[in-house]
Amino acid sequence: MTKTYELHTTYSIKYTTSKPLPVEDIVTSLRAFEKLIRRTPAFIEKAYDGIEIIDTEVFVSKVVSGSLIEDFVITYVFKSKKDYKDAKKVIKKLLKDNEAVRTIVALGVGAVTMYGVMSALPQNAPRANIEAYNNTIINIGAKANISADDIKLILDGTTDKKTLAKQAVSAVAITKVDPKASIEMSGIEELTIKPAVIAEAPEEYTPPVPSEKKETYENVYLQIFASDRDNPNKWAGIAPDIFTKRINFILGEDLDPAKLHGKTKLYADIEITSKFNKTKKKYFPQLVEIKKIVKS
Predict the structure, then answer these.
(1) In this structure, are residues 293 and 263 in contact, taking their beta carbons and an 8 Å threshold?
(2) Structural element, H or E, at residue 160
């Protein structure tokens, strides 16, 4: 059985604001940061090649009112990778390098927070200050044995990007009430999230609207305006009960265009593909696939 080890470290955030913060918002932020901290093992694994973190526990150690400081205690449970020849050396170094580990945790939280915030921004929203912060992350990472490519690989490997975006926005949103507010990360000046960065973050997370959606309907009345006995993809018409603007129709693979050619009215099971119009903020039908004829 592979031996496991525990690494204990700390992380703190300090909100500097001139306005009182609602308790509910503090709790929301705490929960969000706890989830963001749980995303940091990949950064430690990159810095200390040869170890694998198998569990992470996060606790709030202390909350200091006034300037609002939140201290977290973190326990990483890890083991050495199988057959890694320098495992003992790496483990010994990891357990001794607590200051370095704290820096890695702080840059990891900063990196995932900004990545999440960027993911939540509308396409053309200002982001120059957030991008500048990301450059700071890269510079600090280089000193901690984590390259820019490593950071990009970790962030791009995020499988739940929407969840991360929601967590990041929730963590930062608490300071949106004060245009002069900032967030310090474990006392590392370079990682402080300054007012200009916070100003670019959205106030709340809005899930991105899919550019396309598909909907199925049964026994729908169709009016056929164009048909082709030889080509199932050159049809057109409307579904008056759903849309009245002529769009393209295609026939399902089980339907024979020659048998249906010339019919102007049908009842059918269909699938409508609609595309989102960003200007009008609505979906508009673009294509109908006729799946099954119910009545002709």
Answers:
(1) no
(2) none
